[in-house]
Specification:
By secondary structure, the protein is mainly beta. The protein has no helices and 22 strands.
Length: 231
């Protein structure tokens, strides 16, 4: 089962400094049929203007993964963490029993991110933050795990029964992802367009996937793909 969620049909708001699109119910956008997909709760597609951003605000008991598509995002929190995550790289925040953080685009150009929230399997723990570079060359032609709660994965750790993976494909290339039984996946091309089981998924469209043991993705044009695999 694959359900296409076209980018032009997503909810969202343009606040001037922030142009936000929501794949699932978030903030002022509410759709009872789009409250999440497995443990995946939020997938926001944000464009943040230069020298603006999200001032300090709290989170708790949520795994928050930020994939930077263009520009860079600078994180700072009340634990003393501070870091700048550039395009193609990933940051992860485990909110645990509570954290206050800010995220700003301190660059001279628009920053574009996917921000992904996943429900944790463990709550009330000590919060944490981390980031890691993931060069596009390392994920050329196949899926690479960026963040994971699965033991043994070489990725940024999250406290969830989930993986966040990405692949970079040239036009005509295919890649497979072993989803397995009783799992849910949500896939978005950050750039380009792909085909899954005959269904075309364009740039920033969402594909909600269930009941597929293996996901085979074929690039219709040069594409960068982000996928969440969640229980």
């Amino acid at each position: 089962m694959i359900e296409l969620r076209p980018f032009n049909g997503l909810g969202g708001d343009n606040h001037g400094w922030l142009d936000a699109k929501h794949h699932f119910s978030f903030a002022n956008y509410h759709d009872a049929s789009r409250m999440g997909w497995g443990a995946l709760r939020v997938w926001n597609d944000d464009a943040i203007q230069p020298n603006t951003g999200f001032p300090p605000h709290p989170h708790r008991n949520m795994e928050i993964v930020t994939f930077v598509r263009k520009g860079a995002i600078t994180h700072e929190d009340n634990l003393g963490n501070r870091g700048r995550t550039e395009a193609g790289d990933v940051q992860v925040m485990s909110a645990g029993h509570g954290i206050v953080h800010s995220e700003y685009n301190l660059e001279d150009k628009v920053t574009e991110i996917f921000q992904i929230w996943i429900l944790p399997t463990r709550t009330g723990e000590v919060p944490s933050w981390g980031s890691r570079p993931f060069p596009k060359g390392d994920r050329a032609g196949s899926f690479v795990t960026l963040a994971s709660g699965v033991a043994g994965d070489d990725a940024l750790p999250i406290r969830a029964d989930a993986r966040v993976a990405a692949a970079t494909l040239k036009a005509g290339q295919s890649a497979e992802y072993a989803l397995g039984k009783d799992r849910s996946a949500y896939l978005v091309p950050a750039t380009g367009a792909v085909e899954i089981n005959g269904l075309r998924v364009g740039t920033r469209d969402g594909a909600a996937i269930r009941d597929l043991e293996t996901i085979r993705v074929t690039a219709l044009e040069d594409s960068e793909i982000v996928l969440v695999d969640a229980a």
